[in-house]
Amino acid sequence: MSRGEHRQEQTPEQRESELRSMAMHFGGRLVAGRDFREAVLERMQANLPGFPPERYESELEAALARIDEAQVDVMARREQLIAEARQLDRLHAVFTIHYFNRRFSGHVGEYGLGRINLVDALGDLYAREQITEAVRRCDALIEEGIRMGISSWDHEPNMAHLRRAHPGFDDRALSQVLDWGHLIHR
Questions:
Q1: Residue 81 near residue 96 (C-beta atoms within 8 A)
Q2: CA-closest candidate to residue 111, choices 63, 79, 55
Q3: Are residues 60 and 98 in the same domain?
Q4: For residues 141 and 177, is the Cβ–Cβ distance under 8 A?
Q5: Is 149 helix (H, G, I), strand (E, B) or coil?
Q6: Is residue 77 part of a domain?
Q7: pLDDT per position as a tens digit, 26-81
Q8: DSSP label of 117
Q9: How many CB atoms lie within 10 A of CB 119?
Q10: Which of 51, 60, 67, 104 stands 20 to 30 A from 159 (CA)?
Q11: How far is CA 32 from the centre of its chain?
């Protein structure tokens, strides 16, 4: 069965749901600057034909409004993350934000907000060189945690290894990188 035949068998509710989903997807691309409005509308019409042109536009507008609301929530969570990081010692403050940046900032749900700038978030507390050194240490920990995700899932020996190899990081940070490694390699 071809994609077009499948679409002909869809109920009106299924087509409406697909249009909403498509509008959110393309709206996210539009907000992230990866597409232009006209191109998005053309693709929506090509991928799901049969609606009047103004319907695609109205659904894209509704999706953009939902994305605006979501961005407010995302920004509030990011501000909370920064506030929490600022209460930690330098290594853990940098780890908290840098880990978020590496693991989550590229997700669709971030709606093109990108990475949190470490110097903007922590530069009044620490010198740029101190932040850079902490990023280097965080990258080494994150990379090793990801590599370890392909090996044994025996948590305590893995934690013991990371404690020896990366002194100064607390168990929460070590667990987070192991978790990410296991997620990637499962």
A1: yes
A2: 63
A3: no
A4: yes
A5: coil
A6: no
A7: 998 898 888 899 999 999 999 999 999 999 999 999 999 999 988 888 889 899 99
A8: P
A9: 12
A10: 104
A11: 12
State the total domains in the chain. 2
Q: Please indicate, yes or no, whether residues 117 and 178 belong to a single structural domain of this protein.
A: yes
- Domain of 147, in residue numbers: 88-185
State the Cα–Cα distance between residues 140 and 144, nearest whole angstrom.
Answer: 6
Q: Looking at the structure, do residues 103 and 57 belong to the same domain, yes or no? A: no
Indicate whether 171 belongs to any domain: yes
pTM surpassing 0.85? no
Number of H helices, E strands in the chain: 9, 0
Strands (E), the chain: none
Instruction: Give the DSSP letter of residue 116.
Output: P
Does 20 fall in a domain? yes
CA distances from 5 to 10, 12, 48, 52 (A): 9, 15, 12, 20
Same-domain check for residues 92 and 178: yes
Tell me the DSSP string of 42-81.
HHHHHHS--S-HHHHHHHHHHHHHHHHHHHHHHHHHHHHH
78 assigned to some structural domain: no
Q: What is the DSSP string of 69-127?
A: HHHHHHHHHHHHHHHHHHTS-HHHHHHHHHHHHHHHTTSGGGTT--PPPHHHHHTTTS-
pLDDT digits (tens, 9 = 90+) for 56-70: 999 999 999 999 988
